[in-house]
């Protein structure tokens, strides 16, 4: 009996099965690592199509220029041999061949540049522009035999094998069906001139290449759709991963609690500093205390300068006594103000009458009316 571990075949990631949609942060981090939904077949298909179309338009020029270069080099060889008086003119031949290679490279350079541009545009259209060097960095995890074994026998490897077989079948079928229709022209190659034979072979190869590239593009687009689906599935998260990411984004609960406590303390200090400006403090009398201020130049209605419950209410009343702010007991009004108006908020219209009566009483005591 052989022992086995089913976790060997499970997807990576703690917290169970990956059932949750990937978050924006997960996708952004993956993009930074160079993990994107991209099909290399798209660039290959468009590159192949562009190559054969260019050759169809440019092949005549290439053939003419090549024959011209060959004639020039062939004509220079006798002079090079005479210059060395029968000795092997290796140096002269090297110079001639090097010059010919440079000319040939310049001849095919436009094709190479167009191929590069096509491949670059195809990749850019798939993944947009965000270069990163992280995929190029060496990783020790790639040297793991266990992970290497899993990659060899993974669904992705099987899919790549299927694509390779499909491409071979398509290329083989296209080549067979096309060449079968042109066998008559191929059999007369020995009976025509060299230039005509080269032109005919070039025409057959280019037309066949364009047909293969057109069908290859269909495979490429299907592969692109598969790569997008696979990337989305790979990016899915477990419930635990979502919770951990949310926790990291929100911060540690203890740190957040301390931050909120400091904010409350700072707000309380500001509130107590403004308390001497209040016109009146309305109390419950023991549970609630609400400080009211009316400034017609600032607001059209009275507003709450400070409020508190239990211990804070006691501190507000002590501060009011120290600053000679009137304290008025009105249990229903204190509860309504505390429950419905925030610090800095205006008194609601339904409480205008009750608050106005309290303010009138206070103003009368202070001789303001």
UniProtKB/TrEMBL annotation:
Pfam families recorded for this chain? Answer: Bac_export_2
**TM annotation in the entry:** 42-59, 104-127, 161-179, 208-226
The highest taxon in the source lineage is Bacteria
Alphabetical UniProt keywords: Bacterial flagellum biogenesis, Bacterial flagellum protein export, Cell membrane, Cell projection, Cilium, Flagellum, Membrane, Protein transport, Transmembrane, Transmembrane helix, Transport
Q: What is its main location?
A: membrane
What Gene Ontology cellular component terms go with this record?
Answer: plasma membrane
Localization in the cell: Cell membrane
Record-linked NCBIfam families: flhB (TIGR00328)
Q: Which family does it belong to?
A: Belongs to the type III secretion exporter family.
Put simply, this protein is called Flagellar biosynthetic protein FlhB
Which organism was this protein described from?
Answer: Parablautia muri
